[in-house]
Amino acid sequence: xxxxxxxxxxxxxxxxxxxxxxxxxxxxxxxxxxxxxxxxxxxxxxxxxxxxxxxxxxxxxxxxxxxxxxxxxxxxxxxxxxxxxxxxxxxxxxxxxxxxxxxxxxxx
Length: 108
Hints:
- By secondary structure, the protein is an alpha+beta fold.
- It has a domain at 19-93.
- Helix content is 23%, strand content 31%.
- The protein contains two helices and five strands.
- The chain has helices at residues 2-15, 31-41, and strands spanning 22-25, 43-49, 55-61, 71-78, 86-93.
- The chain has a five-stranded mixed β-sheet with strand order 1-2-3-5-4, with helices on one face.
- A hairpin with a 7-residue loop joins β4 and β5.
- The longest helix has 14 residues, at 2-15.
- The termini are far apart.
């Protein structure tokens, strides 16, 4: 009976669908549409051509809940169909040391 339960549980885990992240071309969407899509889906991959013509892409998120523990959501910019820069959040590496504002000067 235990073997049957273990096999059934294993098959159930394999049968669950992995949720794929959607990919969009940012320059074919308005800025408002990009923001609405990120808000609705939580996280998306946006791609665009950089100034040098090289294809660029990155993952953009609704908020910090979609970032890993060593990242936080920070504002970033992508080109859109109607704006040169559309403000969206992107997960960036973060360390608690980054928030220390104190600077220690030398004493004479």
